[in-house]
Amino acid sequence: MNLAETPAAPELEFAFRIIAKVDSGLAIQRRPGESLEIIPITGGSVAGCIEAEVMPGGADWCLYRSDSSLEVEARYWFRTSEGEIADVVNLGRISPPDERHPDQLFITTPQFRTVSPRLQWLTQKVFVGRAESFDTHTTIDVFEVIA
Q1: What is 11-146's CATH topology?
Q2: Is the dihedral of CA 94, 53, 16, 7 positive or negative?
Q3: C-alpha angle 135/137/142, rounded to 5°?
Q4: Which residue has the higher pLDDT, 119 or 133?
Q5: Degrees, nearest 5: CA angle 14-48-102
């Protein structure tokens, strides 16, 4: 490949939507220009190629940085109606607006663990999420990366 050529971008295929219900944030730490909050996850749903219930007990750890960006680390789990369980670790970043992206981007990289044979594909693929936060919930549209 010629280095002057732009490589083809991977494709994305919609997999499912996660709606995580949340409580108000709890301040954990404050430093000059930064603060850390925990936002409890109280339930929710997963809909698409997986149908499941987000279980209460998880949380988002949100680091508000001095450069106006926000780092998010969410940890939670869901259960399908068949009783299958999957653990979710979702790292993300909200970047401050710039000329190329006038809106704040909230992009995540969810990773999954499960013992369910039917859900093993979640542990074998790469996913990206586009998230939007509201007062009562966060919505994450999860896309599989197709090389």
Answers
A1: Porin (2.40.160)
A2: positive
A3: 135
A4: 119
A5: 45
pLDDT interval class at 100 (50, 70, 90)? confident
What distance in Å separates the CA atoms of residue 9 and residue 74, rounded to the nearest whole number? 27
The residue ranges of DSSP E strands in the chain, in sequence order, are: 11-22, 26-31, 34-48, 52-54, 58-64, 70-80, 85-95, 105-113, 127-133, 137-146
What are the domain boundaries of the chain?
Answer: 11-146
Residue with token string 């010629």: 2
String of b and e for 53-68 (b: at least 16 CB within 10 Å)? ebeeebbbebbbeeee
| Burial tier of 112 (Cβ tally within 10 Å: 0-12, 13-18, 19+) | buried
For the entire predicted model, the pTM comes to 0.89
